[in-house]
Amino acid sequence: MTHPGVDPATRARDLPPMSHYARAAAVVVGVVALALLAWTTRGVLLMIFGGFLLAAGLDPMVRNVERRGCGGVGRCSSSCWRSSPA
Questions:
Q1: Rounded Cα gap, residues 68 and 61, in angstroms
Q2: Residue 66: pLDDT band with limits 50, 70, 90
Q3: Are 79 and 68 contacting, i.e. CB atoms less than 8 angstroms apart?
Q4: Where are the domains of the chain?
Q5: Which residue has better confidence, 78 or 18?
Q6: What is the pLDDT of residues 5-15, one digit of tens each?
Q7: How confident is the model at residue 73, as a pLDDT?
Q8: Closest listed residue to residue 81, CA positions, set 61, 59, 57
Q9: Cα(47)–Cα(81) distance, rounded to whole angstroms?
Q10: Alpha-carbon dihedral of residues 15, 19, 22, 26, nearest 10 degrees?
């Protein structure tokens, strides 16, 4: 494609260097590889995500038990049930 009034040598100087295109291609290949890896290990990733959700949900209850300093297992479990929001 030719542009009127633009010297082809000047136009070639205005283009980014080849390293720019190589870096862009490497990023695209990396993103595709990461997406394939996530798709392959989706079961494990789902369990890890569920574990994080469970830990975040139990965190207030655990903090309450730690703050109270329960003396025994029975007292700790009953205080957990009393401090649960549901």
A1: 11
A2: confident
A3: yes
A4: 19-83
A5: 18
A6: 666 666 667 78
A7: 58
A8: 61
A9: 25
A10: -130
Rounded to a whole number of angstroms, the CA Rg of the chain reads 29
Q: Report DSSP letters for 70-84, one per residue.
A: -SSHHHHHHHHHHH-
Closest CA to 83 of 54, 63, 69, 56: 63
Task: List Cα–Cα distances, 66 to 20, 29, 71, 72, in angstroms.
Answer: 54, 48, 11, 12
The pTM (predicted TM-score) of the whole model is 0.48
Structure tokens at 17: 């260097």
80 CB neighbour count, 10 Å cutoff: 15
What tokens were used for 9?
């040598």
Q: Give the separation between CA 83 and CA 18, rounded to whole angstroms.
A: 62
Longest pairwise C-alpha distance within the chain: 88
